[in-house]
Amino acid sequence: MNQQVYTFGIYLKEKFQEKVYKAPISISGFTCPNIDGTVARGGCTFCENDSFSPSLGEVQELKGFHLNLESKENPNLQKQLLQLEKQFEVIKSKSKREYGAKKFLVYFQSFTNTYAPFDTLKALYDRALSLDDVVGLSVGTRSDSVTDETLAYLAELNKTKEIWIEFGIQSIYDETLERINRGHDSQNVKDLIIKSKALGLNVCGHLIFGLPGEDREMMLETAKKAYEWGIDSVKYHPLYVTKRTALANEYNRGDFEPISEELYLDVLMESIKMKPEQVSVQRITAGIDDDSLIAPDWCRDRNAQVRHINAELKKIGLKY
Predict the structure, then answer these.
(1) Mapped to the 3 state alphabet, what secondary structure does 237-262 carry?
(2) Which residue(s) pair with 235 in the sheet?
(3) Which of these, 11, 65, 164, 250, could form a disulfide with 138 (CB 3.0-4.6 Å)?
(4) What is the DSSP letter of 158?
(5) Residue 36 belongs to domain with CATH number
(6) How many domains would you assign to the chain?
(7) What is the extent of the structural domain holding 226?
(8) pLDDT digits (tens, 9 = 90+) for 108-154
């Protein structure tokens, strides 16, 4: 019998003895230092945030309002808290009905969810943790956008709740990070992961396979280093091209060729084989099935992706 890949769901079930669902939340007013000009402009070349956060379109009532680490006040905090509560209630109701969820992690997903004044972050984190059936938080962010004050507060919360911080590692190669307009280097990510771990936080690392200019060995080296840095969980993504991105321009000029499904499967299998046993898997692939996807076409059908992944996993005695 094939052994189950150690997933985040298994980790949570073992810890809480019931089904815990990760509820993705998008709060308007949050942006990214790589979009607002603090470290770069235009965002990462692959980023068209709506395509990664389908719920974002529902929370644009505060359009034109953006926070950053230097913001002195937040006149829309009460509206943001209301957004949080409304979104959570919808997700909670649906996931209890469809998936049998009992408890929840509130996942601050879209953009950079530590990139705001501390008082705003504290209010949002505290309100999320006060909601019924919430056992913890997962905060998606960038390694160049977390103050020591915020990190220390998350570590304090982690003493009584399940607190995760998620960093986009993407690649350990600075030439790749520069090409995708990431706005920070790999040392910055390494330092923040190590600092977070030293404070006792749980860390999830996001890896993208198929970045411009990278070959199989480079992708595998990124996975190897991410594990060595001490991540507790991992998300694997193939790079796909969506409309309204700089990457789409590269693709249309013939300067970028998306990763093939065969190569993705190969790199994914090797990454899973080298993964430390205690590192859980939160995502094994990604894609989008609408007209914003330009390429590769195999990223359109997630069910087919998972079938093909399981066929490969079966060869090494695993299943997802």
Answers:
(1) EECCEECCCHHHHHHHHCCCCCCCHH
(2) 206, 283
(3) 164
(4) T
(5) 3.80.30.20
(6) 1
(7) 3-319
(8) 998 899 999 999 999 999 999 999 999 999 999 999 999 999 999 99
